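Before the break, one more example. Copy the sequence into your notebook; we will annotate it together after we see the structure.
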Amino acid sequence: MPADDKDYGVWNYHPDLPLEDPSIFAKGTNARHIAGWLRRNWLALSERMILLILAVIAYAFFYPALEVAQSFAMGWVIQTYLVNLGFVMAIAGGLHWYFYMRKGQGKTLKFDGRDQAKGNRAFLFSDQVKDNMFWTLTSGVAQLTAFQVVTMWLMANGYVPVITLASNPVWFVLWIVLLPVWSAFHFYWVHRLLHVPFFYTRYHALHHRNINIGPWSGFSMHPVEHLIYLSSLCVHWVVASHPIHLIFHVLYQGPGAAMTHTGYEDLLIKDKRSLALGTFYHTLHHRYFECNYGNQEMPWDRWFGTFHDGSEEGTTETRARKKKMYS
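Here is what the structure looks like once it is written out:
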């Protein structure tokens, strides 16, 4: 049973505690563990496989060809923006419709039993979802597109290394697998920066108004935080990539944030867990703030003493650390 929490009430649901370490690094070079990690993430229906498939389709049919990006022009820039807008609206909006409007799963596997906030002046329009949609669809989509457009221009003009599947098949596949690992590395360290009081109070607090997260909250950030968060995409300025790598990374950072902030652990189809979505790991961060800055892809929180395993002891340690930080 969930343990009582004095501040926010009991959890509606949580996985078995304490949380285990599912990262690829959990057992060093153990081949069986690494094979299991690859199978779960890349050889089965998963968030990243869905995003990769969408990236390939979008590269072939929706985004402008790299050749037209040699000079900045309104046509292909607007096309890129509209595709990104469509993906964000479809994924965040679709998840919100299914889980929170249609209530297709009720509260089964929902971490926080409460509904999204309404009548709360902490949010624009006194509405959590409208607030989240505003920041996501304005600053979020615009900056996501800006990073993508600049990177496409650099690729098209040969200012950064570009590969093809034919020219370097091993690196092409390996870089796809490593991109979420890079994203997790980057996210942990910029997230720690955003929790420095100077940055937190001015910028990151906007995202943290979402204690009870939902799909639209994932990419809802202050414009300065969007700039810092999306700088992860600059890796393509130095690491040899193909446009599919860039598109996959764009979808992972933008629309993918809606999937990890769904507020539910899994999507059920005919009462069977069919797609892993949000994680209790990050949900703990939104409730207790000074813990679990990264994600389960990298064990940084465990290594640097900022891990909350979901237990009452973990909550006590996190609150003590928070008190020390802001005293």
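The CA atoms of residues 32 and 38 lie 10 Å apart. Residues 31-278 form one domain. Try to locate both features in your own notes.
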